[in-house]
Amino acid sequence: MIVRTLDEIRNTKNDVKDENWVSRRILLRKDGMGFSLHDTVIKKGTETYIWYQNHLEACFCIEGEGEIEVLDDEGNKNGEIYPIKPGTLYALNNHEKHLLRAATADMRLICVFNPAVTGDEVHDENGTYPLLEDEDCTRVK
């Protein structure tokens, strides 16, 4: 069994910060679950371009409000905008390029990635996490 608290993750290498967001990486590939789990805060008033070319992602909003705008294959706006509020799930099941925006307050999301991330990924210039191969993907006991 794996039991962790956010307090154990805060201010460690699994508490990843960007100017637009904070991602607390709770479960990682090395945990052997087949997915990773993140507690992510999108900062108020920000817009972030993301394209998970190598991962599927599902996010469930638990605090705040915002929106996700789906972009076309070239990254241009195509008009599909979905509001996000507590209780909203969005799943990027087709590797959609998108803009994620937080409205008047920080937006907190619980996010699941498949395949699981190692925890060392950073968004590249395309908004993508590369597929990283870590040397020791064995389950932590």
Can you walk through the features of this model?
The chain has one domain: Jelly Rolls (Sandwich). A hairpin with an 8-residue loop joins strand 2 and strand 3. The chain contains one helix and ten strands, in the order αββββββββββ. The chain has a six-stranded antiparallel beta sheet, with no helix packed on it. A four-stranded antiparallel beta sheet has the order 4-9-6-7, with no helix packed on it. It is mostly beta strands and 141 residues long.
Indicate the radius of gyration in whole angstroms.
Answer: 15 Å
| Shape type | globular
**The CATH topology:** Jelly Rolls
Number of domains: 1
Order of SSEs, N→C? HEEEEEEEEEE
Please tally the β strands and state the result: 10
**Average residue-wise pLDDT:** 87
What structural class results from the helix and strand content? mainly beta
Number of helices, where a helix is a run of at least 4 consecutive DSSP H or I residues: 1
**Which blocks of ≥5 consecutive residues have pLDDT under 50?**
135-141
Distance between the termini: 8 Å
Provide the helix percentage: under 10%
Quaternary state of this entry equals single chain
Q: Strand order within the widest sheet? A: 1-2-3-10-5-8
- Beta-strand share of residues: 35-45%
